[in-house]
Amino acid sequence: MRTEKEKMIAGELYHAGDAELVADVARAAAWMDRYNASIAMAADARAALLREGLACVGTGVTIRPPFHIDYGYNITVGEDVFLNYGCVILDVCAVTIGDKTQIGPGVQILAADHPRDPAVRAQMLEFGRPVTIGRNVWIGGGAILLPGVTVGDDALIGAGSVVTRDVPAGATVVGNPARVR
């Protein structure tokens, strides 16, 4: 029988109140307390904290606190990536950010999702869908990326956009829902 954590990472229905997952969220919260207090630390000290809290972090990564995550162990960040203040990543399953991507303040990357069927939702079950962001992407401040989207290399997402479906490589999308311009 699969654990709730195994089901979560696989994108299957799982119960977020499972003791192992609650402990993982608590661990991530303690890490966020330390990371979000690191704003005055040297860049190398913050980089060490990022490597401790996330699955994989490339060189030259800057993530400005405050930064909020669910678990951390499902987040992979490429080289020379920049996240501005106040970003949120709900990483119940894989979230991948490609090299040289720049993300504005207040961006939300949401892999967490909920069943549409009210009877299933009433059982407190959730699921996730991976989010993949390519290389050299620019995401404007306040944008929201919904579960399951893939953003192609060199794409641009306008500030405040809500990305509900995949973004082709090189495309510029804006609006709610985000549409190719």
From TrEMBL:
Keywords, alphabetical: Acyltransferase, Repeat, Transferase
**InterPro entries annotated for this entry?**
Hexapep (IPR001451), Hexapep_transf_CS (IPR018357), Hexapeptide_acetyltransf (IPR051159), Mac_dom (IPR024688), Trimer_LpxA-like_sf (IPR011004)
Q: Which PROSITE patterns does this one have? A: HEXAPEP_TRANSFERASES
Q: What is this protein called?
A: Maltose acetyltransferase
Report which superkingdom the organism of origin falls in.
Bacteria
- Residues annotated as domain Maltose/galactoside acetyltransferase: 5-59
Family as reported in the entry's similarity comment: Belongs to the transferase hexapeptide repeat family.
PANTHER family in UniProt: ACETYLTRANSFERASE C18B11.09C-RELATED, SIALIC ACID SYNTHASE-RELATED
Classification via Gene3D superfamilies? Hexapeptide repeat proteins (2.160.10.10)
